[in-house]
Structure formats: structure tokens, C-alpha cells
Specification:
Elements (H helix, E strand, L loop, with lengths): L3 H16 L5 E2 L1 H9 L4 H10 L1 E2 L4 H22 L5 H6 L7 E2 L5 E5 L4 H6 L6 H12 L8 E4 L19 H18 L3 E5 L1 H8 L5 H4 L3 E4 L2 E6 L2 H6 L3 H17 L6 H4 L4
Parallel strand pairs: 1-2, 4-5, 4-6, 6-8
Antiparallel strand pairs: 3-5, 7-8
Bound molecules: uracil.
The site of uracil has 12 residues, from α7.
Length: 269
């Protein structure tokens, strides 16, 4: 069933087309946002028939539509997953991933915390809000990139205790295949792993951030940048640490051939 809001959008587009010489235009981002909405999947076909895509070719749109459908199929399996019986019992819901299925840039965190478990979306708590601010400084919105975690369930906590715990190596090994499927479908140009636990989950190796961050690695032939987890920056507010993360993000922007202003170059100096 189509969402009523989308019916209104389609009606408005049809009116513009009837009343003007030009077909309405939509940016790639606007179409990607529609694509990201689960219920919008069928309707995007209708909308793409109505608009003149400024920067989205038919094949790009088709690719994004296919990726959305492929991701939805993996999400369905994740929702039903009970491989870690203890986590399947304790979770409010699984937390699959969020953003543009056609993203060039994909961020990988460790696991949902309490806020993510409640809201069903990765990186929405304090660390997530900082990640969103970092993205904004890079001139990205959350809807432009893709954000996922190694674990799709919140690591359980003993009854009555607060906070979050890191995932265990076994939990990460069990859940990693879902993330691999996400990466294979999205095929980002650049991956960013946030923190040593995410690196361990992805590469299966435990090394210090001092050894790992700030330089390019590869994961299945995809360039991989490793940087500090935003939660580390919340614990350690020294400008020097913020600058390190920012320098890593400047390298990511360069790799993606994004324009970098003088102001952006000079942050946290
Ligand atoms: N930390 C993570 O690694 N992932 C989240 O989704 C939230 C906090």
C-alpha cells in the first residue's frame, strides 16, 4: 500500500507537469530519500516516471532500487535471527542499518546501545549525534551515507544494570556475515571503521588504534579508513583528538574527490 504522503507528492508532481512547460526536477538525494523509505519502494517507480532527473540516470535509479530490495531481504532475515539466543531474548528490536543504499561512503560501528535498541536505528544516542555532526562538517547528511554496526542486536546487560557493554568476539563472528552482505550490496567506494572493536569485528584482528588509525587499509578491495569511535571523543574532549578524527575524515573526503574548503581544512587547529 502506498503512503498517503507519497500520494500527495505524486499529485503535486502531476500538477507541475500539467501546468508548466518543464517536467519537475528531483535531485539524486531526494530520490534516494524516497528510496530509503520502506513503503516508498513501489511508488519510486511512479515518481521517477514523472520527474526529469537532474543528476540521477535511469540505471543509477534502478541500481538503488535493486539495492534497497536486496537490503530489505537481508533485514528480514536479521529481524528473525536467533543465532545468539541470549541477544534475541534481550533485544527490543534488531538494528539493521540506515542511509543511502547507493552510498559511496559507509560507516561501521560496533553494536547498538540502549538508545539504538529503543529506536531501531544505529548511532542515534550521544555518540551518534556526534557522528551526525562530523558528517555535517564533511557536508554529508545521514541520508547520503550508509551507517551500520557489526552487531545487529544490543549486547545484553545484567538485569538492573545501566550502560552498554562491548560485543564479544563470538557475538561479532556470528553476526559479521550480515554486515558482509550489506557491504556487498551497497558496494561503497570507501569504508570507515569506528574504533578498535569495529575493526576487530570486521578484520578479526585486535590491534591498538594508535597502530591502525589515520592510514588506508583495504577490506575486500574497498579502501578502509580506521578512526576513533565518536564515544572516544566524548570521553576525551582534547582538541588534538578531535583533530586526529578530522584528519582521517579529510583523507576520506579526498579519496571521494569531495571539495574541501580552507575552513574545513583548518578545523580543530
Ligand atoms: N555505538 C556504536 O558503535 N553503534 C551504535 O549504533 C551506537 C553507538
Amino acid at each position: 500500500m502506498r503512503e498517503p504522503a507519497l500520494d500527495l507528492v505524486i499529485a503535486a508532481l502531476e500538477k507541475i507537469r500539467e501546468k508548466s512547460d518543464h517536467t519537475p526536477r528531483a535531485s539524486r538525494t531526494a530520490l534516494a530519500r524516497l528510496q530509503a523509505a520502506d513503503l516508498a519502494r513501489i511508488s519510486v517507480a511512479t515518481i521517477s516516471d514523472l520527474v526529469d532527473h537532474e543528476s540521477t540516470s535511469g540505471s543509477q535509479l534502478q541500481a538503488a532500487r535493486n539495492k534497497t530490495e536486496l537490503l530489505a531481504a537481508v533485514d528480514e532475515r536479521v529481524r528473525a535471527c536467533s543465532k545468539c539466543a541470549h541477544l534475541a531474548c534481550s533485544r527490543t528490536q534488531t538494528v539493521f542499518g540506515v542511509g543511502n543504499p547507493n552510498a559511496d561512503l559507509m560507516f561501521i560501528g560496533e553494536a547498538p546501545g540502549a538508545d539504538e535498541d529503543q529506536q531501531g536505528e544505529p548511532f542515534v544516542g550521544r555518540a551518534g549525534q556526534l557522528l551526525t555532526r562530523i558528517l555535517k562538517a564533511m557536508n554529508f547528511g545521514r541520508e547520503d551515507v550508509y551507517i551500520a554496526n557489526i552487531l545487529k542486536c544490543r549486547p545484553d546487560m545484567p538485569a538492573g544494570s545501566f550502560g552498554n557493554r562491548p560485543p564479544t568476539p563470538t557475538e561479532m563472528q556470528t553476526c559479521r556475515p550480515y554486515l558482509l552482505e550489506q557491504i556487498q550490496i551497497i558496494q561503497p567506494s570507501v569504508l570507515v571503521a569506528l574504533g578498535a572493536v569495529a575493526v576487530e569485528g570486521l578484520l578479526g584482528t585486535r590491534r591498538t588504534m594508535r597502530e591502525l588509525r589515520g592510514r588506508w587499509h583495504t577490506y575486500n578491495s574497498i579502501p578502509l579508513m580506521i578512526t576513533y569511535h565518536p564515544a572516544y571523543l566524548l570521553r576525551n574532549q582534547a582538541p588534538s583528538e578531535k583533530r586526529k578524527v578530522w584528519e582521517d575524515m579529510l583523507q576520506v573526503m579526498e579519496r571521494l574527490e569531495r571539495p574541501i574548503s580552507e575552513r574545513q581544512r583548518n578545523y580543530f587547529l
